[in-house]
């Protein structure tokens, strides 16, 4: 796909300085620019690169003033960083705008399929599934019985969605993620007999789930991700968990069964939360924290394992770092006392 400086400037509402007919077909960093690529300059620390970059087009702020000759065509905008982000979004939309059903894909005759969908090779849509409009189903995706997929949702290669799960509109689910596998429940008093998991998973609108995540179905009822939830890669959500609107979980998070997480929470990497807890709205949890008690005060920030209020943790950690010196001093005091 090629785009001219004139087309890009029109889309970004910018002005052109240089050859308006120059074409680009790729995006690059300014320091790695190649002919046929477009880049941007927003941070003054990178200004040096604009004078020797081989990029064909560079997006710059309106107030940029060159002190040396510049080879690339410039597109001047109010905010170069925001404009470049807008360009990335447009590029991604065009790149991922796939349509059509592969002859190697399979749609069960009882399934309902909307308009303008994409179904890749070896993707399977099982009995009584309902697929909305403009849905993109990449190769080797499995959509189980009675699953519903909302409009404009994208399932990247290798996603597996077990039976009876509901996925909303405008969701993105990345490769390798499994939705609706059994919750981890066994009757230990009965020789470890498996407890059937007959619930489902409900994912509301505008949710993004990273690659290789696992979201377990409920024992009874539903495991729920509310609208706007965002997951990084390698997140595990156990049975009957509910995560409320616009909460963000970084890579490696694990949430045990029947825990409820509030709205607008932000968890750093490798956070572990035990089961049957309540985490208040706007909670922030630092990386590698282990949460063993409910957090009921909205806006709390915690750290450590077991976790505690972050200011208290930092004060305690100072003592922990000095623990050897403190012990040595105590031993010295004991020795003096015993000798006196």
UniProtKB/TrEMBL annotation:
Active-site residues (renumbered): 239
Gene3D superfamilies given in the database record: Hexapeptide repeat proteins, MurE/MurF, N-terminal domain
Pathway: Bacterial outer membrane biogenesis; LPS lipid A biosynthesis
Keyword Repeat: yes
InterPro entries to which the protein is assigned, alphabetical: Hexapep, Hexapep_transf_CS, LpxD, Trimer_LpxA-like_sf, UDP_GlcNAc_AcTrfase_non-rep
Single GO cellular component term: membrane
Top-level EC class: transferase
GO biological process, one term: lipid A biosynthetic process
Reaction catalysed by this enzyme: a UDP-3-O-[(3R)-3-hydroxyacyl]-alpha-D-glucosamine + a (3R)-hydroxyacyl-[ACP] = a UDP-2-N,3-O-bis[(3R)-3-hydroxyacyl]-alpha-D-glucosamine + holo-[ACP] + H(+)
Record's keyword terms, sorted: Acyltransferase, Lipid A biosynthesis, Lipid biosynthesis, Lipid metabolism, Repeat, Transferase
Signal peptide: none
EC number: 2.3.1.191
Residue ranges constituting the UDP-3-O-[3-hydroxymyristoyl] glucosamine N-acyltransferase non-repeat region domain according to the UniProt record: 22-89
A Pfam family per the record: LpxD
MF (Gene Ontology): N-acyltransferase activity; UDP-3-O-[(3R)-3-hydroxyacyl]-glucosamine N-acyltransferase activity
Keyword tRNA processing: no
Biological function: Catalyzes the N-acylation of UDP-3-O-acylglucosamine using 3-hydroxyacyl-ACP as the acyl donor. Is involved in the biosynthesis of lipid A, a phosphorylated glycolipid that anchors the lipopolysaccharide to the outer membrane of the cell.
Subunit record text: Homotrimer.
Protein family per UniProt: Belongs to the transferase hexapeptide repeat family. LpxD subfamily.
Protein name: UDP-3-O-acylglucosamine N-acyltransferase
Organism: Vicingus serpentipes
């Amino acid at each position: 796909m090629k785009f001219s400086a004139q087309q890009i400037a029109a889309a970004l509402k910018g002005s052109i300085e240089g050859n308006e007919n120059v074409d680009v077909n790729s995006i690059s960093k300014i320091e790695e620019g190649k002919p046929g690529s477009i880049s941007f300059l927003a941070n003054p620390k990178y200004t040096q690169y604009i004078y020797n970059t081989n990029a064909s087009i560079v997006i710059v702020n309106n107030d940029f003033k060159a002190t040396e000759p510049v080879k690339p065509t410039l597109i001047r905008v109010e905010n170069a960083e925001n404009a470049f982000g807008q360009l990335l979004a447009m590029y991604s939309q065009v790149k991922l705008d796939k349509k059509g059903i592969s002859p190697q894909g399979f749609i069960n005759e009882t399934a309902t399929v909307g308009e303008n969908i994409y179904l890749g090779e070896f993707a399977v849509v099982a009995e009584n599934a309902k697929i909305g409009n403009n849905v993109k189903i990449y190769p080797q995706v499995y959509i189980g019985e009675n699953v519903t997929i909302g409009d404009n949702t994208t399932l990247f290669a290798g996603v597996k969605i077990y039976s009876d799960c509901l996925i909303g509109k405008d969701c993105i689910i990345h490769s390798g993620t499994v939705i609706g596998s059994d919750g981890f429940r066994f009757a230990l008093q009965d020789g470890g007999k498996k407890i059937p998991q007959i619930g489902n998973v409900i994912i509301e609108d505008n949710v993004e789930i990273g690659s290789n995540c696992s979201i377990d179905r409920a024992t009874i009822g539903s495991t729920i991700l509310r609208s706007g939830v965002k997951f990084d890669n390698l997140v595990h959500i156990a049975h009957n968990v509910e995560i409320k609107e616009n909460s963000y979980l970084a890579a490696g998070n694990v949430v045990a069964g029947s825990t409820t997480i509030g709205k607008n929470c932000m968890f750093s990497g490798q956070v572990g939360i035990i089961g049957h807890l309540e985490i208040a709205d706007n909670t922030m949890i630092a990386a590698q924290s282990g949460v063993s008690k409910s957090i009921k005060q909205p806006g709390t920030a915690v750290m450590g394992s077991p976790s505690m209020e972050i200011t208290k943790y930092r004060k305690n950690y100072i003592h922990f770092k000095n623990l050897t010196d403190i012990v040595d001093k105590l031993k010295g005091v004991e020795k003096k006392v015993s000798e006196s």
